[in-house]
Amino acid sequence: MRFHPGGRFYAEIRAAGERIVLGTFDTAEHSARAYNTAAWWLGRPATTFNFHDYCTLVEAEFVAGVSTNLVSAEQRHRQCQLQRRLDIAEADECAMEAWRQAFPQDVMDEDDFFTQKRAEREAEMAAKKAAKMEVRWKKAFIASQREGPCTISDNDERWLDEFLTTLSASSASEEDGDF
């Protein structure tokens, strides 16, 4: 506890190598009671207390008029960093909203760009899927030819049945690792 030139009393406590600021108080007694509450909360022995007129932590908090929400200098520094980051993010959001309002054409161009990219990616995936199906179709045809000569013409519906049968068989063998 220290006396400040402004007439107030400053209280702090050290724990685990860190200095925990308890605050400034109007009287030395309030400062000492805040120290007692913090010492009790930190599990210090009762012999280190300045006053012995209460039996529980709740009584100590009530008499001191402070809570046990103790914050170390490191925690306070981390909280300030997080608050600064939040403030920057909010400022960025405000700036982006102002930009969207000032330049709506840019926003539409950006949306069009990403819509085009999405369509290109979907077309690419569809082409890959079609190529895979083509390979499977050819494998099914070759497998059916190995079984013997075929009298089914290319336009016959039975080719689809043959393909689907072979496809389901090849899918099962792919899952088993036989492929």
Q: Overview of this structure, please?
A:
- The protein is mostly helical.
- It contains 5 helices and 3 strands; from the N terminus they run βββααααα.
- A 3-stranded antiparallel β-sheet has the order 1-2-3, with helices on one face.
- It starts with a strand and ends with a helix.
Strand order of the biggest β-sheet: 1-2-3
Distance between the termini: 79 Å
Mean pLDDT: 77
Q: What's the number of extended β-strand segments?
A: 3
The ordered string of helix (H) and strand (E) elements is: EEEHHHHH
Radius of gyration: 38 Å
Structural topology:
Elements: E1 2-3, E2 9-15, E3 18-25, H1 28-41, H2 57-64, H3 73-102, H4 104-146, H5 158-176
Antiparallel strand pairs: 1-2, 2-3
Helix pairs in contact: 1-2, 4-5
Brief digest:
The model has no long low-confidence stretch (mean pLDDT 77). With 179 residues, this protein is mainly alpha-helical.
Output the keywords.
179 residues, 9% strand, single chain, 3 strands, mainly alpha, elongated
